[in-house]
């Protein structure tokens, strides 16, 4: 429970100082100046009094209870201090010092010692390598950032500078403020997902804003995010996507940056609003914290000039948001109050209609939001600046409109977002909108992104029931024969299943595949092959040869006895040549598959998220176009459909150029089976079904490779 | 020549008024208040004096010369007023009124009447439907926007609100200002390209910033842009990309929004920096107006904290910009002045090294810019805010650094871009940077886009010699036989060449293709087919049947006499069934092409840009992945290479999965030939070579379709 840590009622400053340039002095002054309601205990063996407070030799000397320690001393002192904190039953410690894992081997050892001490003593750690934390409600400012605005957003940040950026932005642009700020630092003890859980349960927090460079417990994070985002939105920017960015993040917080192809869709499945441009991070959080989500993906634009409307329509269209037609009734009502030149289709352009009375904006907004096709309203242009740009007296009408707009959102439960090119000016009308929690942006691009995020969050809330919760029920549907196949390999100290074993395993769980038979000599090969109605394929079977083609261990299109026997001989010869002394178990004889559409399915264990699955079309679509999709396992049968649709080539499955289309039902079943298999046999490290041939009806897993974990689990 | 119009020394205000709310009053006051240096003549038959100036009954009554008329009266009055302007030999008129083509048929007729009058009288028109123009140098403000900052950017804008947005941004963010503002409006007379020519020749303009919704003379614009961008950068945002955006732009300025797939690459070929997010428009123009271009696509980042460096590295990597390694010497020098925890690889992180003395930023910058691998520097983080965030006295060091940085750019000819989260605060150091023309941004995203634009512009300047100038030399390499083929079709009143004619034409210009022979009956068909070494293909020949497959008019893989004759009979029967009474010229017999890689090449006449060519891989790559590229013709042999590389699938041509690759040389030659053909025969409206089969060596144009212009040119 982080309650005692983040809502601490008493704080000890370890490393308190009289030197005004030291963090140990500034931290105490910050608590005093901001009016922290709890106890403050300076700790410094050499001082009597600091900033008017009695100073303690060490934390155990304090009489009353201590919830939290802010430790400002260097890295090497930390384990010792934590021992004392443990004795004092301190709930948590914020560790400012850097110099741990981000500095390499020596730092890593020190970090491990620190974690060990923390676990032993029960003290929970924030950081190290953090800028600190702030609780805005109790005025516990342990980050040394002054004038942080209070509000409804919890900020969880893995870079002190990014926190400062977001806080500055909130201040300068008069956005919503914060409930808490947590600098996660190296995430040595308390993990991202624990903060999520805490903020989910905090009634004052309406949105959670996260800047992540890397996280160590990806799957637990997804699980908590999945629980959280249905209650309140999570807005996240993950940096370190590029190779250089990753390098930079690595030297920064010392944690591994995650692979974006896996992370982004996984985050989104957990309902997280993933942001890629840092400009959008705060405004989107602000919008989601204060405005209702849009459930029908449809928005109307209200403009007082063409340019903004056109750009806005372009951007929203890029985001896949519809600008629905307005009903005849809506259009008639708008015509009734707007000049003839006005455009009453969506985007609505008042065409000078508001020039003499900007309060008309509210009347238009009311009419538009009453339209059943419209899920929300984006006002773009000069609103809030009529009194500045034209005639001061017009400000009255704008203020009247602002009040009306503010009440409209509450009543209609449809959001209003305002873009105003006067948002940086002193405008009472815009301040009123902010008072009513209507976001005001000077950027049209950012305004559209906010609309898009309201749509995305709305869509998530609608589809929530269909989403898997990222929890494995290990061994759930394991079969005895399957366990035996794996056990046999393990007994032989193999971490690779032979092709026939792998095929047997997947067939056991319902995958359509020809297992075939292993021939020990050319006569056996022909005995098997001659029973195959069409042509045959021969493939080397050896635990030492993973890539059969590389070893010239595959022969296709074989029909006659001569062909089959010659193929057998050549395969064996090639294998011996490829790897002398290889453990050759024989040659697998299977029927040659009919032509169809080539599919690739693979699973692996991702460092951050655990088991993930990849799906895509084979050939150039995967190799050149990189048109594949990665999903964190397990996947529900429903989400298999979504997974297939995530690839651009999925339209091919529906049939093009006169083709009738392919058996998507069987494909979905196969993906489901893979998910089930990984859940059933935790011993599996990697599985490759490549190629799978998809037909108009049915499919055929032509090759299967399964690699087991090494070192084996439990050994 | 627009000189007399945009640099007018005398202005008549037609529709001058004593009513303070009228444009006809405000315009005069604006000229007076801003100190316009020329003559001002109010025109109003009912008044004697307006704003202290003598008022004239009509423009012809004025004694002195009049360069420019600002007409604020309604649409219907314009043609009459222009007649009078003509008599007075006024060089140009700015027409504010809307109510022309954007309102439909009636408005369009009025606009045409107006254009006719303008052409007859020689008066050049700006607008109609414009917010006006401003010459900041002569203080001729005819747009009614107050406090426009003067500077080095010419603003050409097709939306008054977007102009206001950009001017507001320049003011609020203390960016560079403007030389001119032109509201293009409906672009009825003076076109975008004429403004380009004017601003190219204006010595005070260092960059041209354009917001375009649609333009009527795309090709001339490209030609002027090509001449201009090598001298000064053009920065352009084209809105109306989406269907809804297009609709909105249509109702706005009444001009057709251009197809983005054609427009964007064409603009970029002409050296234009194309912007898609309106937030980036002004900052990029500001950067390009004030900083040297980056020629080696390589930048270094200097940061005072990890988060910004990581995000910046991600974004720059997305833009394809390299963050080169620093030399050993550079790293050693940095180590010499930075603390041990600092990162001296790129991104450089000072890791607290500037905390006590921010002037160190300049020393680091100096060392980094001396590195031969580095083309420019991006400083990210808190610079300019040390005095605000930490200790006021630190501002001195920041100011010292600002002076050094300013002089460094001048000396090293390498750009510096600064991201500062204190850019909205009052910081003398940041103001100093601005004084030295170093752009300062509060947005990290925008900062990176500015760097990317400097790289893009630098790359253009380097490759300028290889770019075609968008000028056709019509009929240049026409051949007599080719002209005869076209003439014959025209004589027959056909606007479609028969397949054999089309193939003859392209073969004449060197395209590898089997023209084949037309058989009139089945015996002739077999006579032709039996001479073909491999298999034959039979195809219907009829000017009435454009889509041969739809009419079941194609038979493949024919070998025997029976097959060929039967195919002939079926094709004729199918064609008669498909379109009874069709003009059937016979059946074309050609060799069956070998298998290879399917390519599509097509040309058409684009409404905005004239002839364009499309290239792409056939099959799913064009149909599903839309992996095609459109280029405005003509294309130089050099640019054919670039055109092929523009498709993502181009790697396929180099050979994958063990394939040796395809004959790119022949493909480039074929594209070149298409360009030559369109130039040689202006009668061609559309040409389709589909499919072209590409081999390891050589290629084969299997089908060709050429459609001629209709109505025919000159008739």
From TrEMBL, chains A, B:
<dbReference type="InterPro" id="IPR032875">
    <property type="entry name" value="Succ_CoA_lig_flav_dom"/>
</dbReference>
<dbReference type="GO" id="GO:0016740">
    <property type="term" value="F:transferase activity"/>
</dbReference>
<dbReference type="GO" id="GO:0005524">
    <property type="term" value="F:ATP binding"/>
</dbReference>
<dbReference type="InterPro" id="IPR051538">
    <property type="entry name" value="Acyl-CoA_Synth/Transferase"/>
</dbReference>
<dbReference type="InterPro" id="IPR036291">
    <property type="entry name" value="NAD(P)-bd_dom_sf"/>
</dbReference>
<dbReference type="Pfam" id="PF13549">
    <property type="entry name" value="ATP-grasp_5"/>
</dbReference>
<dbReference type="InterPro" id="IPR016102">
    <property type="entry name" value="Succinyl-CoA_synth-like"/>
</dbReference>
<comment type="similarity">
    <text>In the N-terminal section; belongs to the acetate CoA ligase alpha subunit family.</text>
</comment>
<dbReference type="GO" id="GO:0016874">
    <property type="term" value="F:ligase activity"/>
</dbReference>
<feature type="domain" description="CoA-binding">
    <location>
        <begin position="5"/>
        <end position="100"/>
    </location>
</feature>
<dbReference type="Pfam" id="PF13607">
    <property type="entry name" value="Succ_CoA_lig"/>
</dbReference>
<keyword id="KW-0808">Transferase</keyword>
<keyword id="KW-0067">ATP-binding</keyword>
<dbReference type="InterPro" id="IPR003781">
    <property type="entry name" value="CoA-bd"/>
</dbReference>
<keyword id="KW-0436">Ligase</keyword>
<dbReference type="Pfam" id="PF13380">
    <property type="entry name" value="CoA_binding_2"/>
</dbReference>
<keyword id="KW-0547">Nucleotide-binding</keyword>
<protein>
    <submittedName>
        <fullName>Acetyltransferase</fullName>
    </submittedName>
</protein>
<dbReference type="InterPro" id="IPR013815">
    <property type="entry name" value="ATP_grasp_subdomain_1"/>
</dbReference>
């Amino acid at each position: 429970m982080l309650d005692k840590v983040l809502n601490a009622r008493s704080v000890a400053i370890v490393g308190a100082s009289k030197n005004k340039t030291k963090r140990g002095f500034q931290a105490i002054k910050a608590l005093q100046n901001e009016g922290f309601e709890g106890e403050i205990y300076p700790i410094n063996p050499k001082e009597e009094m600091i900033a008017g407070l009695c100073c303690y030799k060490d934390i155990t000397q304090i009489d009353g209870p201590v919830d939290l320690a802010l430790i400002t001393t260097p890295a090497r002192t930390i384990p010792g201090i934590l021992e004392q904190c443990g004795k004092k039953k301190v709930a948590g410690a914020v560790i400012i010092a850097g110099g741990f894992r981000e500095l390499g081997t020596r730092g890593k050892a020190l970090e491990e010692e620190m974690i060990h001490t923390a676990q032993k003593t029960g003290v929970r750690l924030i950081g190290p390598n953090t800028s600190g934390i702030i609780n805005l409600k109790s005025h516990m400012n342990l980050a040394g950032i002054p004038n942080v605005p209070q509000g409804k957003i919890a900020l969880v940040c893995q870079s002190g500078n990014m926190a400062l950026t977001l806080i500055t932005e909130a201040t300068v642009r008069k956005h919503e403020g914060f409930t808490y700020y947590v600098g996660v630092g190296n995430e040595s003890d308390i993990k991202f997902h624990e903060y999520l859980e805490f903020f989910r349960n905090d009634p004052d927090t309406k949105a959670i804003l996260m800047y992540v460079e890397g996280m160590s417990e990806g799957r637990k994070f997804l699980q908590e995010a999945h629980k959280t985002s249905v209650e309140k939105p999570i807005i996240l920017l993950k940096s370190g996507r590029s190779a250089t960015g990753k390098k930079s993040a690595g030297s920064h917080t010392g944690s591994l940056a995650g692979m974006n192809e896996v992370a982004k869709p996984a985050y989104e499945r957990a309902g997280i609003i993933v942001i890629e441009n840092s400009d959008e991070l705060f405004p989107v959080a602000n919008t989601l914290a204060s405005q209702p989500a849009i459930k029908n993906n449809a928005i109307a634009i209200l403009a007082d000039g063409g340019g903004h409307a056109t750009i806005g329509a372009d951007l929203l269209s890029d985001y896949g948001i519809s600008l629905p037609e307005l009903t005849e009734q809506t259009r008639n009502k708008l015509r009734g109050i707007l000049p003839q030149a006005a455009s009453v289709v969506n985007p609505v352009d008042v065409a000078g209609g508001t020039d003499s009375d900007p309060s008309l904006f509210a009347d238009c907004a009311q009419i538009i939001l009453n339209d059943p096709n419209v899920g929300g309203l984006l006002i773009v242009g000069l609103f809030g600046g009529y009194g500045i740009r034209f005639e001061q007296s017009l400000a009255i009408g704008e203020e009247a409109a602002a009040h009306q707009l503010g009440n409209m959102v509450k009543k209609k439960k449809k959001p209003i977002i305002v873009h105003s090119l006067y948002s940086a000016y002193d405008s009472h009308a815009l301040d009123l909108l902010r008072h009513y929690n209507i976001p005001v942006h000077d950027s049209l691009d950012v305004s559209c992104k906010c609309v898009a995020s309201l749509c995305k969050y709305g869509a998530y809330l609608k589809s929530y029931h269909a989403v898997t919760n990222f929890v494995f029920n290990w061994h759930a549907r394991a079969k005895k024969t399957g366990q035996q196949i794996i056990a046999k390999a393990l007994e032989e100290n193999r971490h690779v299943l032979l092709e026939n074993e792998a095929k047997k395993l997947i067939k056991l769980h319902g995958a359509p595949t020809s297992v075939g038979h292993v021939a020990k000599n050319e006569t056996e090969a022909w005995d098997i092959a001659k029973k195959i109605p069409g042509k045959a394929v021969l493939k080397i079977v050896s635990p030492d040869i993973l890539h059969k083609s590389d070893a010239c261990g595959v022969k296709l299109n074989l029909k006659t006895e001569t062909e089959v026997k010659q193929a057998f001989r050549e395969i064996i010869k090639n294998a011996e040549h490829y790897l002398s002394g290889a453990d050759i178990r024989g040659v697998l004889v299977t029927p040659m598959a009919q032509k169809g559409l080539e599919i690739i399915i693979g699973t692996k264990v991702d460092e951050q998220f655990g088991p993930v699955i990849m799906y895509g079309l084979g050939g150039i679509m995967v190799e050149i176009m990189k048109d594949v999709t990665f999903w964190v396992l397990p996947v529900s049968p429903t989400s298999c459909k979504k997974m297939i649709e995530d690839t651009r080539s999925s339209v091919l499955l529906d049939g093009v150029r006169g083709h009738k289309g392919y058996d998507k039902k069987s494909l979905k079943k196969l993906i489901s089976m893979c998910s089930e298999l990984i859940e059933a046999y935790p011993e599996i490290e990697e599985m490759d079904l490549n190629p799978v041939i998809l037909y108009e009806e049915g499919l055929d897993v032509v090759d299967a490779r399964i690699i087991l974990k090494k070192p084996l689990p439990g050994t």
